[in-house]
Structure formats: C-alpha cells, structure tokens
Amino acid sequence: VNWTREERYTKLSDISEEAYHELQEKVNQSKWRQTFHIQPKTGLLNDPNGLVYYKGNYHIFHQWFPLGAVHGLKYWYHYTSKDLTHFKDEGIALSPDTEFDSHGVYSGSAFEYDGKLHLMYTGNARDDEWNRKSSQMVAVQQEDGTFKKFENPVIHDTPNGYTEHFRDPKVWHENDKYYAIFGIQRDNETGTAVVYESDNIKEWTLKSEIQTDLQNFGYMWECPDLFKLNGTDVFIFSPQGIEPENNQFENIYQSGYIMGDFNIDTLKFNHKNFVELDQGFDFYAPQTFLDENDNRILIGWMGLPEIDYATDEEGWAHCLTIPRVLTIENGKLMQRPIKALENLRTNKETAEGYANKHSVKLHPYEGKQFELMIDILENEATEIYFDVRVSKKCSTQLIYNTKTKQLTLERFESGIVSEAVDKTTRTTTLDQDLKQLRIYSDTSSLEIFVNDGERVLTTRIFPDENAVNFRTSTESGQVYLKFTKYDLQ
Ligand code: FRU
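^ Those are the sequences you sent over. The predicted structure of the assembly is below.
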C-alpha cells in the first residue's frame, strides 16, 4: 500500500469512529498478534519512550502512528505496569496538537522534577516546503494523569553547525543538575550527540558534543542513552549509515553501545569499540531506566524502519521487546530477561537426552507462546541444529558450529519473510562454547538469550498456524541436552 503524504499526516481525530473501528476489527483478526509483548492496538509502533519507575508504577510509552503500518504522524501511547509483565492501557499521552509538534511528537524520556512526572521529547514540524524544524519540548503530568505541554519549547533552536536532525532527549539528574543528551547531525552530515544542562528544566544551555573516537561514524545518531552501570559508563545509541563488517552491522540501522570512562565536565568519553546490542534481525532504538531495585532495564523496538512486514496489510506493525536487565560482569555487558517474566509461566515440561544426526523431537513440545531453556551438557557434534516453531512448511533454525563457535539464526524457511532485508541469516561468534539457549517465543517473535546473557538475537517471524514444534539434530556426532519449557500466559 502506498500512502500519500496527506494520508500519513492525517490525525486520529480526523477520521470517523466507524473507520477507526473497522481498522481495529481488521487488526484483531490478525493471526500474528502477540500475547506478552506491547504492540500497537492499530497502526505502527516504533521507539519505546519515557521509560520510568515513578511512585510505585512503571510507565512505558511508545511512538505511535494510529492509522496504518507506515511512519506517519506520531503520537505517544502510554502503558503503566506494576511488574513490567502485565500492562494497563492508559491511551494516548501526547498528540501532535501544537505548532511545534504538528508533524510528530517524536521520541524522548521521562524524569521526576518538583515531585511530578515530566516528559521531554522532540517536536517535529514541517513548513510548506516540507523543511524540518525540531523543537525540544516538555510536558508535565497533571493530577488527573494527563500530560500538559509547556507553552513553548524549552529549546527552540538547533545549535549552530548542525542540521535539523536534532532529537530524542534522554534526561538524567546528577550533581544537582539536569542533563539531556540528544542525537544530532553535524552540517557535514556525520552523526553525533550533544549534551545540554539545566537547573530548572525550563532553561537549557548547550555544553558541547560528546567527545568520542567515533568522529565519522554514520550520518545520524538516534535515541542516545548515557548511564553508569556497575561503575562503568555506558553510552547506547542508534547510528544510521554504518556499513556491514564481519557479520556485524547487517541490519539497515544499528543499535549498540560504547563503554568506558565518561567525564561529565569535559564530555570526554574514553571507550572501547562500538558493540551491537542484539544479533537478530529486528531490534532498534532501545532505551533504559532503573527499576524499583535500581537494576538497569532495557527495552527496544522489535522492528526497523524501511522494511515491509507481513502484518502491514493487516493494518499494524511491530512490538516492543521484553525488558532485559543489564549488568557488566568481567568487563562484558550482559543482558538477561527480567525475573518477573517468570510470573507468566505455566505447564512446566522437562526432558533430557541425546540428539544426533536424525532429527529428534525429544518431547511433545508444542506451542507458540513459550519459554524454552536448553542446556547443552555434553557436545561432541560438529554442528547442532535447533529448529524452532516448526510445521511441515516452516522452521526457524539456530545453527551452532562447535569449532568456530559461530551461532547462526536462519530465517529462510520461517514463513513470510520481511522485505528489503539483507540476507536470511544473522551470525555471531560466541566468546565461549555454547552452553545455554533461552528462547522466548511469542506468536510472531523469538528472543534468544545465549549463554546466560552473553548474546541476544531478536527476530520477528511470520510462520503458518501449525508452526508449533521443536526439533534438534546434528550434522554428525551427538549432543546431550536438557530441556525445560514453560508455556507463557
Ligand atoms: C527512531 C526515530 C527517532 C525519532 C522517532 C520518530 O526510530 O527515528 O529518531 O524521534 O523515531 O518516530
């Protein structure tokens, strides 16, 4: 479907209730609707926004275009949660209803100020010639739970030396000051990030660019996030325009991190290489926040721009990832699913046994929504094949090569393959032998945690209705495995 500009910039309030209801009916009939992931009730979801734990509640917002599976006029949609696994629908939080955000309430973050929940975001506006104007805006939560925008942007102008690609503030509080980091594009069309500071969240002054070794690293950095984790500074961002290299950076846009030592006064960041956060096909624009126990939690958008997905024609696209806990252990960034996901477990099944070159189905595991833990207790196989969500016609395969320690996710037979995606495989080389896989399967997605948080591979899949089986086999040699599986509800 080709949407005209006019259609993409139609407001939700400009279509009739019947028309919206019809769209909703269409979406509800989709066989790919997720069960334990946040997904748009209609239309397109992209970045997670405003993630925060505030006065006993988690708040999760997301970028939303209500009217179809395209990047049109963006709103902020709002959920609250007590445990990050069950969500309460709070409806629209921010609409594009001022001159500063007339063409989209773009991404941003949440923070507490003066005892109230505040949101800072980028207002996207276009003039008659379709020139972009970015304004940085603040909204504050009212007694009744709604959000009221400040009358004027808190940052009206883009600093000199940069284009209007200036967005996605992440706010934090430190040394009695508020700081905000933004993704921005230099006039020479390279990406970077700038830091502003404020005493009162109304007046912001530019400090400068963050000083990294990545001077020529893509044409734009989106959705920056800067924080300390186990004594190390971590900077997460989503650069655009990075070329693939040795099985890395194969998606259209990247998201990853640098870590090391950051100085808030000089903005100098001494860091190691940029590392991708996820090795799968569908992951972008992640953001982090602290949970009630001060764990650093990350949620990403399980999707990417400029790709056609199987659900597009059903009037919806994308979802958020499950929340992951971040830690740094022995100098490595680890990502594990949050513990509260255990609340969704039912029907435990376990099995143990050998798999060899004949495909085995160790147990009558069947399902679409499950958590499957595979412990590899002995491995004499050259290559191990794990086939997930298998039917007669479909299978998503994980291939582990014992010698090279390469783990490959193969989507060739997964079902309807997303269009405009390079290759049907994603490969990552593990730091250690493969010991464990922990797979979260929802109706149309897989999130695969490897070796207790060493790697994550996230992907959407659109298999047929019967893709509920699981099989293991090897190229040659045998492997001894232990399976633990729970249905998730
Ligand atoms: C990232 C992004 C952000 C922007 C938002 C608009 O996916 O492009 O930079 O604020 O999406 O929806």
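The pocket of beta-D-fructofuranose is lined by residues 46-47, 63, 74, 106-107, 122, 167-168, 222-223, 285 (CB under 6 Å). Residues 197 and 330 are 33 Å apart (CA to CA).

Shout if you want it in another format.
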